[in-house]
Amino acid sequence: MEIWINPACSKCRSAISLLDAEGADYTVRRYLEDVPTEDEIRAVLERLGLEPWDITRTQEAAAKELGLKEWARDAGTRDRWVKALAEHPKLIQRPIITADDGTALVARTDEAVRDALSR
Q1: Which of 24, 41, 67, 104 has minimal CB crowding within 10 Å?
Q2: Glycoprotein: present as a keyword of the record (predicted)?
Q3: How far apart are CA 80 and CA 28, in angstroms?
Q4: DSSP code of 102?
């Protein structure tokens, strides 16, 4: 299991604390420092069953600068969204846990973290 985190994020710290409390075996990826490639983002999106706009933090300054709220959300713009996430990783929703069963989830709640542990 791997968890993508921003250490400054309280939801990330909470998820790590719960994983530790449960004795989980996991790897931490500080995705602002170890930025995922476009292919890695596509792979995680497939595991999540989501589209790039579903995991984009549209309130971030970079999102506003890029005008993301006005971007189309369709198959034709999917690559543009993925590229924006790779170039501006702060836009990626967090934390994301890739579970051992091949799935992934955005683990913003304790329930989601427990769900990842059960997979």
Answers
A1: 67
A2: no
A3: 27
A4: S
Contact 2, 94 (CB under 8 A): no
Roughly how many angstroms between the first and final C-alpha of the chain, as a whole number? 10
**Domains defined along the chain, listed by start:** 2-118 (3.40.30.10)
Predicted TM-score (pTM) of the model is 0.93
- Give the pLDDT of residue 72: 98
What is the C-alpha to C-alpha distance for residues 98 and 117, in angstroms, rounded to an integer? Answer: 10
| pLDDT at res. 103 | 95
26, amino acid identity: Y
Q: What is the total residue count of the chain?
A: 119
pLDDT of residue 36: 97
Residues of the chain with pLDDT under 50: none
- Contact (CB, 8 A) for 107 and 94: no
Tokens for 63? 């999102």
pLDDT at 15: 97
Strands (E), the chain: 2-5, 27-30, 96-98, 104-106
